[in-house]
Design a protein that fits this description.
36% helix
């Protein structure tokens, strides 16, 4: 009897899912690509003839045809944490000792180890085995819904295989771009004279941030799962390594290098083995992750701040390579600081092709004794901008040229001034200088400042180059008509940009202060200033002495603030911005004398469960306290968490007030800066 279309469709889906699994998860395909494509085409044909039989989980339904308007936010049911880092063997021993002390365990611990992929952390949510949602980590609590892009990644099953999975299963892992795919994609981009990605991690991030899944579908992305998150119902094994194996049985890809070891000597040996093989792995890794393998022990250990106590990431050291210095260019930043930038013969270091490195300042060039044409050692550590570490002696060509620091600004021709107490050389052109115009507008538009969507760096540069804008206030006079003259800016995008600028008019005082880009006034200082003075007028009228009363404001910052408020040009721009409708709600000013811990010095030592030490420090400062790094007779109170050592001993010797975490949290909540 002939099979019904429904039966054939189901059989094809089952076959395709199995082949996909064998190819992407087990790395052991049993059919050729051509055979796979043939099965897929047959399924597509049947679904085209019987559209009523199409289901969202069908292997044909990975790529949605309609781009999203915007990303939706997703609240993670369990926060997506980060990992503490260790940088040498000793720090691994320390981690292991802390774990064993907390668990009161004398014997060696069992650890699950695996490479730490240099990708983007994501969460997959399966309900009854069907992929329901894919989300980015975001800030750990709130991420972005990227389901449409996640569905395009072939190593992520749309339906789990087999049976026995919990009805609600959140799986976490890393989406990454394998090195070969990255190289091929960039080669193609170069050929087409399109933008190339600096490294596989950025390429993966950029691919996941597409509104149009058809673009993501063309990117060679993979996913590797490293843990479960929120789980409801069902039974999972009691060891982390067995949970990973179970995920693999359900069709999810896990790292083939994962291993279980006992004791720190084996952890370190695993690290050495992987470090040796790092270059031959088909993906970029930046370290090794160790996890206490017993889930029950993980639960007993719990978390500290934003990281689990039962896991640690051992990072690989910075990577170094040699290359040649081709030239030095001088870049002018937002505040006019002139930074020499080394242009290098491109070299592959730590998974990235490096062709530029910062030289910091004139003193650094002198310290290195650098000349154009020299062979140099380049170092790259993590995401840090590559550095020139040293010049290779004896390799200097005969025609090596001296590096001449310019006397005038390379962008606007204004005079350059050397700061009296530092190596920084600054262009005095201020907003006359196109480089400073561009950088200050980029900063103003950035996410943490006025958050003007669509006003990216490239567009700002175009707007300034075309002289459509010169300063921040000019943004508000932009019209669709004038924008339309810009190359590559479609009318719809011009309209969106004008609307985004209009939307950003309603802002907050801390954002506005930060957005102005006053030297050394970062987000935290802007918040402190806003909370302290409550409104713009009071801030502008504050004397240097009054500014010094604000948390975190020292003489240098106070001086920068006064210079800004005393500058007719800067204040004219602020007036114009406000006249263009930028507004905020004033805050309740907090007088210095009102702050409950004003004039007191506190010390935080040991570990806290509810927050990290930085957060504790910020909250104490919010209440008016100064937070010191060491205990002295001047200390008013010491907050001592578990693990407090010599500082606690000293506090006891001096008979100072000492409170534990519970007392500290109670104090914070009594002053309304923390909710218990
Ligand atoms: O960021 C991470 C990378 C790899 C992780 C992680 C991991 O395991 C191999 N594991 C955990 C538990 C966390 N982040 C929080």
């Amino acid at each position: 009897m002939a099979r019904t279309p429904q039966a054939e469709i189901e059989e094809l889906r089952e076959q395709l899912n199995q082949h996909n699994y064998r190819y992407h998860v087990l790395d052991a395909p049993t059919v050729s690509d051509a055979r796979y494509d043939k099965l897929l085409r047959r399924l597509q044909q049947l679904e085209q003839d019987h559209p009523e039989l199409i289901t969202p989980e069908s292997p044909t339904q990975r790529v949605g045809a309609i781009p999203l308007e915007q990303f939706q936010q997703v609240q993670h049911e369990l926060p997506m944490l980060s990992l503490d880092n260790a940088f040498d063997d000793q720090e691994i021993q320390d981690f292991d000792r802390r774990v064993r002390e907390r668990l009161d365990q004398d014997g060696e611990m069992e650890y699950a180890c695996e490479p730490k992929l240099d990708g983007i952390a994501v969460s997959l949510l399966y309900r009854d085995g069907q992929l329901q949602r894919g989300a980015t980590r975001g800030d750990g609590r709130t991420g972005e819904d990227i389901t449409h892009n996640i569905r395009t990644i072939a190593s992520i099953p749309l339906s789990l295989l087999g049976s026995g999975y919990p009805p609600v299963l959140e799986v976490r892992g890393e989406v990454y771009m394998p090195s070969a795919g990255f190289a091929a994609m960039n080669a193609q981009a170069r050929e087409r004279e399109e933008k190339v990605f600096v490294n596989p991690r950025n390429a993966a991030a950029g691919s996941l941030r597409q509104l149009d899944a058809r673009i993501t579908a063309q990117r060679p992305l993979e996913m590797c799962c490293y843990s479960v998150g929120w789980v409801e119902g069902g039974d999972l094994p009691s060891r982390h390594s067995d949970i990973l194996l179970r995920l693999q049985e359900w069709g999810l890809r896990i790292n083939a290098e994962s291993a279980v070891v006992v004791g720190t000597a084996a952890c370190i040996a695993y690290y050495r083995r992987l470090a040796e093989r790092r270059a031959e792995l088909p993906y970029a890794i930046d370290g090794i992750v160790y996890k206490v393998n017993e889930v029950a022990l993980q639960l007993r250990l719990g978390f500290i701040s934003r990281a689990p106590r039962w896991a640690v990431a051992r990072k690989f050291p910075a990577q170094e390579e040699t290359t040649r210095l081709l030239d030095v260019e001088f870049q002018v930043g937002r505040t006019g600081a002139v930074t020499p930038v080394a242009r290098l013969e491109p070299v592959f270091v730590g998974g990235v092709t490096v062709s530029n490195a910062t030289l910091h300042n004139r003193d650094e060039i002198q310290r290195l004794g650098l000349r154009i044409g020299d062979r140099v050692v380049i170092r790259r550590a993590g995401d840090v901008i590559p550095q020139v570490v040293s010049v290779i002696a004896g390799a200097r060509p005969a025609d090596a040229a001296e590096i001449v620091f310019p006397e005038l600004c390379p962008v606007c021709g204004s005079v350059l001034e050397q700061e009296p107490d530092g190596a920084v050389i600054r262009c005095i052109g201020g907003l006359v200088c196109a480089a400073q115009q561009k950088e200050s507008i980029k900063h103003y538009a950035s996410r943490k400042a006025m958050d003007i969507e669509g006003l990216g760096d490239k567009l700002v540069e175009q707007l300034v180059d075309e002289e459509l804008i010169h300063d921040l206030a000019d943004l508000y006079a932009l019209e669709v008509g004038s924008l339309a003259q810009l190359e590559r800016l479609a009318e719809k995008s011009a309209g969106n940009l004008v609307a985004a600028i209009a939307d950003s008019r309603a802002t907050s005082l801390p954002r506005f202060i930060y957005a102005l880009g006053i030297r050394e006034v970062g987000e935290a200082t802007a918040l402190n200033l806003a909370q302290h003075f409550g409104n713009w007028e009071a801030l502008v009228a504050a004397s240097e002495e009054q500014l010094l009363a604000v948390n975190d404001v020292g003489p240098v910052v106070a001086d920068h603030l006064r210079q800004f408020f005393d500058s007719v040009d800067s204040m004219q721009v602020v007036t114009e911005i406000r006249a263009a409708g930028v507004s905020w709600e004033d805050l309740e000013p907090r007088e210095v004398a009102d702050l409950p811990l004003q004039g007191q010095t506190w010390v935080v030592t040991g570990s806290l469960e509810a927050m990290g030490r930085l957060e504790a420090k910020a909250l104490l400062q919010q209440l008016g306290a100064k937070v010191a790094g060491s205990v002295s007779a001047k200390t008013h109170c010491v907050v001592a968490g578990p693990g407090a050592g010599s500082k606690l001993t000293r506090a006891r010797e001096l008979e100072l007030e000492v409170i534990d975490e519970a007392g500290f949290l109670a104090l914070l909540s009594s002053h309304g800066v923390y909710e218990e």
